[in-house]
Amino acid sequence: MSGVGFYRPDQAAPLQQGDLVLAPLGRLAAPDAPTPSRWQGLDQDRHRFPFASEPELGAVDSLAGYAPAIVVTHDCHLDKDFLERYRELRKTGMRKADAVAVAEADPDLDRFVTVAPLVPQTAVRATSEAISEQQVIGLFGVPALTAANLPASAADLTFRATIDRHSIVTRLAVLTEESRTALRYALARADALRTPAIGFELENAVGKRIREVRTVSDNPLLVELELSDGSAIRLVHQPTPVDQEGPGRTAAPP
Predict the structure, then answer these.
(1) Strands 20-29 and 232-236
(2) Is 145 helix (H, G, I), strand (E, B) or coil?
(3) Mean pLDDT within 172-181
(4) CB 3.0-4.6 Å disulfide test: which of 11, 70, 76, 80 passes with 155?
C-alpha cells in the first residue's frame, strides 16, 4: 500500500474525519499496570491520582503523550455546534457571511474530537500485508508519509481519546474520499460488525437462508445478501453525507 490514492493535497480544508494529526493522547490504567508493547511510545508521562479522600475507590494512573493520530469523529459531529449556532444567528436576521464569521470566532464550539493513535506496523503482531489490505479488525492501515516522517503505520482503533481540537499541534495529511470510506468501514467492523454470528441472527430474523454475500460496486460499506428465495437485502448503507444546507467551517485547524 502506497500513499498514491490514499492522501490528497488539501491542507486548506476544514478538519474532517480521517485527517492525520499530531496531537496529545491519554488513557487511564490501574497503578503500575504493564503497557502493551505497541503503546509504549505513546506513554510519555505518567501521573497517579490516589483519591485520598475516597480510598475505597483505589488509585488510578493517567498516561499521556504526543503522537500522530487519526481523527475518527464523523464530519457531522465536527461541525454540529457550529451549524446550530449559525442557524440561530440566521434566524435573527443576520447575513450569512456575518453569521459564519461570528460562529467561527467562537472558540468553544465543536471543541472536542475523538482520535486514535498511529502505531508502527512493525509494533503489531499482524503481518504488514494484512494491515495494508485492511484485513485486521481493530486496525486501519496507513501507508508511509515521507513528508511527515511517518513510517507505514496502523491506526489502533482499540485506543481512542477525546481531545480538545485546540490542542492539535498540526495536521499531517488529508485522506482521499476513498480512504475515508475505508476508514468508516474499519470503524463499523471494529465496533458493530465483528461477529460472524450476525449472519445466523439475520437468517432467523428474515426467515430465509443466506445464499451469498457480496459487495455493491466498489464501496465496502454497501453489502448485499442474496436470500434463498432470490430476493436480496442490504445490510450496511452508505454513511449519511454531511449536511450541505449550512456552511462548513472555512477556518483551517490550528
Answers:
(1) unpaired
(2) strand
(3) 92
(4) 70
Residue 69 bridge partners (DSSP): 21, 117
- The per-residue pLDDT for range 213-230, each reduced to its tens digit, is 666 666 666 677 777 777
List the grid coordinates of 223. 453489502
C-alpha cell read off for 185: 468501514
What is the rounded distance in angstroms from the CA atom of residue 75 to the CA atom of residue 84?
Answer: 14
Tally Cβ neighbours within 10 Å of residue 49. Answer: 13
C-alpha cell of 197? 454470528
Which pTM was predicted? 0.75
57 neighbors 138 (Cβ within 8 angstroms): no
How many angstroms separate the CA atoms of 183 and 181, rounded?
Answer: 5
Cell 435573527 belongs to which residue?
A: 92
Closest CA relative to residue 121, chosen from 143, 88, 105: 143
Per DSSP (E only), the strands in the chain are: 7-8, 20-29, 45-49, 60-71, 112-120, 139-142, 153-156, 161-164, 170-175, 210-216, 219-227, 232-236
| Phi, psi values for residue 5, rounded to 5° | 85, -10
How far is it, in rounded angstroms, from Cα 30 to Cα 201? Answer: 37
Find out whether 248 and 242 touch, Cβ atoms under 8 Å. Answer: yes
The pLDDT tens digits of the residues spanning 42-60 come to 999 999 999 888 888 889 9
**What does the block give as the cell for 172?**
499531517
Lowest mean pLDDT among 102-106, 115-119, 224-228: 224-228
